[in-house]
Automatic annotation (TrEMBL):
The organism's place on the tree of life at top rank: Bacteria
Composition bias type Pro residues, residue spans: 55-78
Species of origin: Plantactinospora soyae
Assigned keywords, A-Z: Cell shape, Cell wall biogenesis/degradation, Peptidoglycan synthesis, Transferase
Tagged with keyword Transferase: yes
Protein name in UniProt: L,D-TPase catalytic domain-containing protein
PROSITE patterns membership: LD_TPASE (PS52029)
Matches recorded under Gene3D superfamilies: L,D-transpeptidase catalytic domain-like, PGBD-like superfamily/PGBD
Length: 273
């Protein structure tokens, strides 16, 4: 039986609605007219005048068709090219692990496959392979994270870079969870920097002040802790009330790595806070 603790911090609840509509072609009714009309019979005693025919005009020859112009190469089907193509290719090549990319600013089947894998991994919607601003921003932050900035001890340390909005885990000087994305405290609720320890954990914690469930809750100071996000993580216009929001897979991974007493090291400052 899970223990419920009230009064924990929570990210801002921002439910989003997905509106959709459907339409179709209205049936077209065919308008049918029926009836008959017969020409009057020729007058009795008169010889009918045969109908005359006009000569057909001579057949004309159709003008020759112009040769089709060669079309410019198009991106692979289903893989639109975004305005940050080269940037995303550069960052993915630096990160590695998502497939081969060619840094040339042009979409290819291999580039699209790698970008889609990246988008699915970090829940960037829609995951259609388009290199847009959100994909470029997430890739830049991950590729720029310096894991050596986090001073870890002999055990596991959870590291948070507020400036880049990234999280990773260290153990014995080695990265045991690669940097991933987070969203921390918004303006007025800035996540505090410093070194702390996880002091309470619950797989499903209820936040009394904000009335929201916090899956995979790991508290490290006051009412602030790590937990699975309750909103779209890449909506940067909002933030938490100090907590470190995580994608579902990352929240589960950090839960498996952590325990009461796990060290937490928070550095930097979220832009705008």
């Amino acid at each position: 039986m899970a223990v419920t603790l009230f009064g924990a911090g929570a990210c801002a609840f921002d439910p989003q609605t997905d509106q959709s509509g459907a339409g179709g072609l209205a049936p077209v009714g065919a308008e049918n007219a029926t009836g008959a009309s017969a020409p009057p019979a020729p007058d009795q005693g008169k010889t009918p005048v045969p109908a005359t025919t006009k000569p057909r005009p001579p057949a004309t020859t159709a003008p020759p068709r112009k040769p089709a112009r060669p079309s410019s190469p198009k991106p692979p089907s289903g893989c639109p090219q975004g305005d940050r193509q080269r940037d995303v290719e550069t960052y993915l090549a630096r990160l590695g692990g998502f497939g081969a990319v060619t840094v040339d600013g042009r979409q290819s089947a291999a580039d699209c496959a790698a970008i889609k894998r990246f988008q699915r991994r970090y829940d960037i919607r829609p995951a259609e392979g388009r290199a847009g601003p959100t994909t470029a921003d997430v890739a830049r932050r991950l590729a720029s994270t310096d894991t050596d900035k986090c001073a870890d001890g002999s055990g596991t340390t959870f590291c948070v870079d507020l400036t880049l909005q990234t999280v990773w885990a260290m153990r014995g000087g080695k990265v045991v969870m690669a940097p991933t994305v987070t969203r921390t405290g918004m303006s007025g609720f800035r996540t505090p920097t410093g070194t702390y320890k996880v002091n309470f954990r619950n797989t499903k914690e209820w936040s009394d002040p904000y009335e929201v469930w916090l899956p995979y809750w790991q508290r490290f100071i006051g009412g602030i802790g790590f937990h699975q996000t309750t909103t779209y993580l890449h909506n940067k216009s909002i933030g938490s009330h100090g907590c470190v929001n995580l994608l579902p897979s990352d929240a589960r991974r950090m839960w498996a790595l952590g325990k009461v007493g796990t060290r937490v090291h928070v550095i930097g400052r979220r832009p705008g806070t």
